[in-house]
Specification:
seven-stranded mixed β-sheet; single chain; 8 helices; alpha/beta
Length: 248
């Protein structure tokens, strides 16, 4: 472990982006380690990571290979457990395709490490709608999905489906990771809502989300469908589930 922070990047067929995003993160003044969770990419994504691990970023870049597309949520859960075992204090979620700007990583880190928040969310909607190059239909779907979640759950976060986040270690130690239900973007909602119900301090950090320039989007209507219908269950849980107490 060369840093107190690790960035988890799930990948499936990201050969166009993976080396560029790794280089961009490691060029930052603040030191971050990176864990790539690759779901059997046939395009050679994992092989590109291994080459970088052995030639350029030994000890800072790590890889977990899984067989087949097992879902975004399960990739992050695997990454969380890996990071917790290695005593990282700040654990990030980030996409490989530059929709999340590496230059925003220090701002998310500062919200937790310096301002004392437990979860920092890179938010597209906390200060208007900050999305570039998305089709208008997708912008509206994402924006109103977050509004819907807020309406149903009473959860006061503007960007509930955001996938650019920094957790303090104690959040992921407290949340019962094996009980997280959702695998797609419902996973993003469930993790935030659970952190909120347990009582962790959450901050939305405004970011600009830029649609991928290279590679193919993994978004689908089914992903949003899971998020949409799963929210009612989260609301039910909010009434009746006994949430764990915060682990220091």
């Amino acid at each position: 472990m060369s840093s107190d922070s690790i960035i988890i990047i799930p990948t499936y067929n990201e050969i166009e982006n993976i080396e560029k995003i790794v280089n961009a993160i490691f060029s930052l003044e603040k030191k971050f380690d990176i864990l790539v969770i690759d779901d059997g990419s046939p395009d050679g994504t994992a092989q590109a990571v291994k080459r970088l691990m052995s030639t350029t970023y030994e000890g800072r870049l790590h890889l977990v290979e899984r067989k087949g597309k097992l879902g975004l949520g399960t990739a992050y859960i695997a990454g969380f457990k890996w990071a917790l075992e290695r005593e990282y204090e700040y654990i990030f979620e980030m996409d490989a395709d530059f929709s999340h700007d590496p230059n925003d990583l220090p701002r998310l880190y500062a919200a937790c490490a310096e301002e004392g928040y437990d979860l920092a969310i890179g938010s597209r909607y906390v200060s208007g709608v900050n999305v570039v190059n998305w089709p208008i239909g997708r912008v509206l779907m994402s924006y109103f999905a977050s509004k819907y979640v807020r309406f149903v759950t009473g959860f006061n976060v503007n960007d509930t489906t955001a996938g650019f986040k920094c957790y303090r270690r104690r959040v992921l130690k407290t949340i019962e990771l094996d009980k997280v239900r959702f695998k797609g973007y419902g996973f993003q909602i469930e993790m935030k809502f659970t952190a909120y119900k347990i009582g962790f301090k959450i901050k939305e950090v405004p970011v600009i989300f830029i649609n991928r320039r290279e590679g193919v989007s993994k978004m689908s209507g089914g992903i949003f469908g899971e998020a949409f219908f799963g929210v009612m269950r989260l609301r039910w849980d909010g009434w009746f589930r006994k949430y764990p107490k915060i682990i220091g």
